[in-house]
Write a structure and sequence with these properties.
Blueprint: E1 7-10, H1 16-27, E2 31-36, H2 39-48, E3 53-56, H3 62-72, E4 79-82, H4 99-125, E5 128-133, H5 146-165, E6 171-176, E7 181-182, H6 185-189, H7 195-198, E8 205-206, H8 207-219, E9 224-225, H9 229-236, H10 243-253
Parallel strand pairs: 1-2, 1-4, 2-3, 4-5, 5-6, 6-9, 7-8
Helix pairs in contact: 1-8, 4-5
The protein binds NADP nicotinamide-adenine-dinucleotide phosphate.
Length: 260
């Protein structure tokens, strides 16, 4: 019998959650299309998954977006995972010129662009899955990571609405909302010593567990996946906790005490 290999694209597959998703999908027999910027990590991916296709591109840049479309061409993509993203951990008034805008280009603009373009292609083919990585941050305003939290609120709102628009098709959009997860995220964000980092309010989950929940939820066509019971409690708490109090809690757990 002819076996049909499915194609999965993962942005940000060179570390953390995206890398774990690559491992999971490789074990499921998917043909992998992996992106990142770190050349050494891309080489490592090629060694670990010899049949994978890789692209080194900064997706926050127009040239990176063009390289992506040239690379993927007309490949029939069954699963598109918009995972690449990062945070900027500082007060807005202390941000560098363009720093927050660049983050929005990756976390929001490219995710919107890829979701729209792959949704069109998938609807034409009659089937497909899109998995967008948001965060528990999508449910709150987040002082000291203000633009990052706002970017993830966009991802959640946009992805759930797109999923609803596609309800009469065989294409689904799943939003993955991880809480704090062990990866390079905090180091990249410019981590500060804080209750969030000390992890006593929310323990940090393994990237593998988060990736597995996300992939499984997406393949089942779920609308939203929140890995971990405590993270789930955080996502429903805004129903009971007034916005001004949320701001105070988030400001406390993400305060800017510097690591000594
Ligand atoms: N870790 C957490 O606590 C947490 C919680 C909630 C949501 N998330 C979300 O989960 C997703 C994955 O993050 P992670 O925790 O796995 O962090 P990570 O280990 O830092 O991985 C981030 C990935 O994104 C890629 N990336 C970053 N900037 C890029 C750019 N300009 N162009 C292309 N690729 C870029 C990185 O590639 P290179 O290193 O090769 O540049 C890397 O593969 C992100 O969207 C993040 O917001 C994380």
């Amino acid at each position: 019998m002819k076996s049909i290999v499915k194609n999965a694209v993962i942005t940000g597959a060179t570390s953390g959650i995206g890398y774990q998703m690559a491992k999971i999908l490789h074990n499921k027999g998917y043909s992998l299309w992996l992106t990142g910027r770190n050349l050494k990590a891309i080489e490592d991916l090629k060694t670990e998954f010899p049949s994978c296709n890789t692209l080194s591109a900064d997706l926050s840049k127009e040239s990176g977006r063009e390289d992506f479309w040239q690379w993927i061409g007309q490949t029939p993509v069954d699963l598109m995972i918009n995972n690449a993203g990062y945070g900027v951990w500082k007060e807005v008034i202390n941000s560098e010129k363009g720093e927050l805008e660049n983050m929005i280009k990756l976390n929001v603009e490219i995710l919107l662009h890829f979701s729209a373009e792959f949704a069109k292609r998938m609807v034409k083919r009659g089937v497909g899955r899109i998995l967008n990585v948001a965060s528990v941050a999508a449910f709150f305003p987040g002082p000291n990571l203000a633009a990052y939290y706002a970017s993830k609120a966009f991802v959640l709102s946009f992805s759930e609405a797109l999923n609803h628009e596609l309800r009469k098709t065989k294409v689904t959009v799943t939003t993955l909302c991880p809480g704090p997860t062990k990866s390079k995220f905090f180091e990249r964000a410019g981590v500060k010593k804080s209750p969030l980092m000390e992890g006593f309010l929310i323990p940090h989950m393994s990237a593998f567990k988060v990736a597995l929940k996300g992939v499984e939820g997406s393949l089942k066509g779920k609308r939203r996946v929140v890995p971990g019971f405590l993270n789930y409690i955080w996502t429903v708490s805004p129903i009971l906790v007034p916005r001004f109090f949320q701001l105070r809690i988030l400001n406390y757990i993400q305060n800017s005490r510097k690591i000594a």
